[in-house]
Amino acid sequence: MSVSHLWLGLLSSIVVFVVCLSGAMYSFKTQISELLNYDVVFNTEANHSNWVKPETIKINFLKEKKKVTRMVYPSDFSRNVMVFFHDLEEDFDGHYYVHPSTGDIVGSNAQSTGAFFDLMRSIHKNLLLGKIGNHLVGISILIFVVLLISGLVLWFPSNKKQWKKGFQIKWSAKLPRVIYDLHNTLGFYTFLLLLFISITGLYVSYAWVKSAVVVSLGGQPVLNASNADAMKSELSNVFASFLEESMDNQAEKEKQQVEVSLNQLLEDSNRRLPYKAITTIQLPTDDNPHYQITKVKQESIFSAVVPDHVKYGKDGQFKKLFLFSDQSIADQFMEVSLPLHTGEILGLSGIILYFLVTMIACSMPVTGILIWVRKL
Amino acid sequence: MKKLVILLMATTLFFSCSEEKGRRGIDFDKLKGQLQLTEDQVAKYDAIVTKSEEERKKQFEEMKASGKMNRKGFMKIMKTSFKKQEEELQAFLSEEQQVLVHEFMKRNMPGQSDYSDELKAEVIQTLALDSAQTVKYKAVNQAFTKAYRDAHDHYHGNGEAANMYWNQFNEDRKAALQKIFTEEQYAQYLELIKKESYRGQNERG
Fold first, then answer.
1. How far apart are CA B88 and CA A218, in angstroms?
2. Could you tell me the pTM of the whole model?
3. Which residues contact A131 (CB under 8 A, 6 or more apart)?
4. Are B158 and A207 in contact (CB under 8 A)?
5. Are B18 and A129 a contacting pair at CB < 8 A?
């Protein structure tokens, strides 16, 4: 067991190190970007009366020849409202932050971290090696899962006296022992979370893992030659539901454009979804002629990514309420699989926890190699 | 010592191949291989491809610098640039090569997972669809695109699965169109779509 743990560890060490490090850096993308643009993202004024009405924002932007396409209201006054628009004169899409009470334009993100984090994401996903890299990462993470399990087996103390050693790092001991403890004990404490992060990562990389997870949650397997006949009617039903939606969209497009009060839509959605949330108002586009209001609840533990939607027609008539809780477990999992992998599902605390655990994973190949080199 | 050497070799191998192919969109080397260009044409072809790639790169950088980077803008630059590039290439190619270039670029246009807009317009015109049929025809195509993209989580990174989903939803599309078209129109439709075979491979993961 220890020999295979050693050789598999050596084989995957560099890739695991690089993937963990780039993943840990990428997890703070939103926070770093917001910090760099602190003055526009956050509202530092203490006194606030009321929220600026969406209708006011829409009219103000239209005066500047900008057609609002989407607005994102934060859950409290600590942040500004983000407004996406299409510039009718210069024909481009852009965004501004506006003050949550006055509606005054504060500015837009001036500092872009996109290039750096795009690089981190590419390294994390494929080591900048395209498809070969995808497979290298996938295989290395598969090996890492085996290493986690074999590591746990190796960690198990052989007798009662050894148990205490397995739970703590003896900082007062000599360096080789400290290194061994760092590998052994930290590996034990992070085992479950690292296993979870690895499997959700494999879910993204490998269709068969995705298929296995989705099917185990009662969802639809990935289509293949052996199940094509069995899945035919199920997929036809999927197509039929999209066709119904498309027919509805086309019928909606044919309707006359009437003046719809965004204020009323927002009030209606708040009545239907009465909780504190980040609220996105999506206005009709050429492709989608509906108004849609999405609320992401900020009161539950899964604060970051669980959305409910209310859909309205072009004439402002209520059409449908989509609750996250109404979806099947498999669909819910598919919707939150990425935030589950990144820790965003638990908000900032989750990201920090994942970061620490991932940095420990980063140290595993290093401490492992140091233990091995010392034995040479 | 032997183990250290193995470790060093693995590290060297890893970093020696750490270079990603940076090109986005259409593979013009592949197209070049299919065209059987003359020596004179090769020089012109290479010059246009290089110039166009540099122009696109410059436009992307400008868009990033302006803070107005978005998928829609990105696709607009790509499509406009490829269209212009096609016109420049057509200028020195034979008729046969022109057809090859047009079909290749149409087939490999980024974000184009369905039949080309050109073919869809041709269907409406050739089948002489009335306004109600046209609305339904567009709705069916929209349903196809949405169903195929919605299945993306299932076929992501798996070309074979992507192909199967595309074909399955295309069968559903045909069944839906059969109810909208007359028998004659449907027969014409089946003939027209033979012009463009499966396009789902352009859907990126």
1. 53
2. 0.72
3. none
4. yes
5. yes
Question: If we measure between CA atoms, which residue out of A19, A1, A21, A7 comes closest to residue A372?
Answer: A7
CB B102 within 8 A of CB B86: yes
Backbone angles phi, psi at A84, to 5 degrees: -100, 140
Sequence letter at residue A76:
D
| CA pair distance B205, B22, nearest whole angstrom | 16
Please tell me the distance from the alpha carbon of residue A292 to that of residue A318, in angstroms, as a whole number. 10
Between chains, do A207 and B142 touch, taking CB under 8 Å as contact?
Answer: no
Residues with Cβ < 8 Å from A290, sequence gap 6 or more?
A: A249, A252, A284, A311, A312, A313, A314, A319
Determine the longest span between alpha carbons in chain A, in angstroms.
80
CA separation for the pair B150, A134 (Å, rounded): 22
- HSE-CB for A115 with a 13 A CA cutoff: 8
Question: Which residue matches tokens 């695991």?
Answer: A16
B146: which residues sit within 8 A by CB, 6+ positions away? A242, A245, A246
Instruction: Tell me the pLDDT band of A47, cut-offs 50, 70 and 90.
Output: low
Q: Find the helix or strand (DSSP H, E) in which B10 lies.
A: helix B2-16
Q: Three-state SS for A286?
A: coil
Nearest CA in chain B to A112: B67
Summarised one tens digit per residue, pLDDT across range A153-208 is: 988 877 777 777 778 888 888 888 899 989 989 999 999 999 999 998 888 777 67
Contacts of A102 (CB under 8 A, 6+ apart): A52
The SS3 of residue A62 is helix
Question: What's the CA gap between A285 and A185, in Å, rounded?
Answer: 55
Q: Cα separations (Å) of B162 from A11, A154, A331, B145, B199? A: 32, 42, 19, 13, 10
The CA-atom distances, in angstroms, between A162 and each of A179, A211, A240, B13 are: 17, 41, 62, 40
B51 touches chain A (CB under 8 A): no
Residue boundaries of the structural domains of chain B: 28-108, 117-202
Residue type, A340: L
How many CB atoms are located within 10 Å of the residue A124 CB?
20
Whether the pLDDT of residue A286 is over 60: the answer is yes
* CB-CB contact of B118 with B81 (8 Å): no
Q: Number of residue pairs across A and B with CB atoms under 8 Å?
A: 130
Q: Which amino acid is at B143?
A: A
Interface TM-score (ipTM) > 0.90: no
Asked if B65 contacts A110 with a C-beta cutoff of 8 angstroms, the reply is no
Interchain pair B161, A250: CB under 8 A: no
